[in-house]
UniProtKB/TrEMBL annotation:
Species in which this protein is naturally found: Halorarum halophilum
Cellular compartments annotated: Cell membrane
GO molecular function, one term: ABC-type vitamin B12 transporter activity
Parts of the chain that traverse the membrane: 45-69, 76-95, 154-180, 284-307
Pfam families: CobD_Cbib
UniProt gene name: cobD
Keywords: Cell membrane, Cobalamin biosynthesis, Membrane, Transmembrane, Transmembrane helix
Protein name: Probable cobalamin biosynthesis protein CobD
Length: 308
């Protein structure tokens, strides 16, 4: 049933891309935690409490719902678990947003700078067309890890372990793991900045949670491109970004494409001499899409192996 839930999530992503914003669980979670973004007397203590408790709350709700649905009909539990995973992950929307920015960068730079805001949190007003494409390619790599591999990996790992040890809990635990992981990532994306002391604990927790998914994503990108050597080359550059994790998929994709990826004043990933061309950007889309398909297929295969 857990393998079927992954297929449900993948099918919904292909058909719908995202749940409606007004009912999107991640958006609802964001609105719930937004009041934390203010001055606190002990901001780090507040951040530790938020990082400890809020992801557990986000995981507890789908755990209870999927458990209840599974007790009525395992197929209903699988469908609901698939809906949870769909809400916690995204591939089609990432590919669509990146494609729009890459294509616009050739004919309408102002529009490309504007559409980049949906992908990368940086000031795009002074970026050249090549730098805009660089940011889009970087976002493809980083968001593949954050938006697909991490929640899918958590779902798969929890489902696999529970499928061996406690099959009756496989679906609710898998859904809870995906929701917990997405909540951790959402807290980091909202508060994990140096100017926000409350975000120290969420950022450190996200660093730990994303350690393995970032490196698995780098491996998937290298394999999807048929360039395992790119992963080895990326080891030299992966520490350039301030994040301990995001440099791995970004540097790997830079070497796969043979291009330079740069966030001016922050890091430079010299996979090649020039910024990505439009053709490079479109190739990055294909590699990212194939890597996502491989991730889903691997999860289904692994979970199918422990199906009762």
């Amino acid at each position: 049933m857990t393998a079927g839930a992954v297929l449900v999530a993948a099918g919904l992503d292909a058909l719908l891309a995202e749940p409606p914003a007004r009912v999107h669980p991640v958006a609802l979670f964001g609105r719930l935690v937004d009041p934390l973004d203010r001055d606190w007397g002990r901001p780090r203590a507040v951040g530790v409490g938020a990082a400890s408790l809020l992801p557990l709350l986000a995981a507890g709700v789908p755990f209870g719902l999927v458990l209840a649905a599974s007790s009525v009909d395992p197929r209903a539990g699988a469908a609901l678990a698939g809906l949870v995973l769909f809400s916690a992950s995204s591939l089609r929307m990432l590919l669509g947003a990146a494609r729009r920015t890459i294509v616009e960068s050739e004919s309408d730079l102002a529009a490309a700078r504007e559409s980049l805001l949906a992908l990368a949190g940086r000031d795009a007003a002074s970026l050249s067309a090549g730098q805009v494409r660089s940011a889009a390619v970087e976002s493809l790599a980083e968001n593949l890890a954050d938006g697909l591999v991490a929640p899918l990996g958590a779902f798969t790992l929890a489902g696999f372990v529970a499928g061996v040890a406690a099959p009756g809990l496989a679906l609710p635990l898998a859904a809870a793991a995906a929701a917990w992981t997405k909540a951790v990532n959402t807290l980091d994306s909202m508060f994990g900045y140096r100017e926000k002391p409350v975000g120290w604990a969420p950022a450190r927790l996200d660093d730990v949670v994303m350690w393995l998914p970032a490196r698995v994503t780098a491996l998937l990108l290298a394999l999807a491109a048929g360039r395992p050597d790119a992963l080895l080359a990326a080891r030299r550059d992966a520490r350039a970004p301030p994040s301990p994790n995001s440099g791995w998929p970004m540097a790997t994709l830079a070497h796969v494409l043979g291009v330079r990826l740069e966030k001016p004043g922050v890091y430079d990933l010299p996979g090649g001499g020039d910024y990505p061309s439009v053709a490079d950007g479109l190739r990055a889309l294909g590699v990212t899409a194939f890597a996502g398909v491989v991730a889903v297929a691997g999860a289904v295969g692994l979970l199918w192996g422990v199906a009762p």
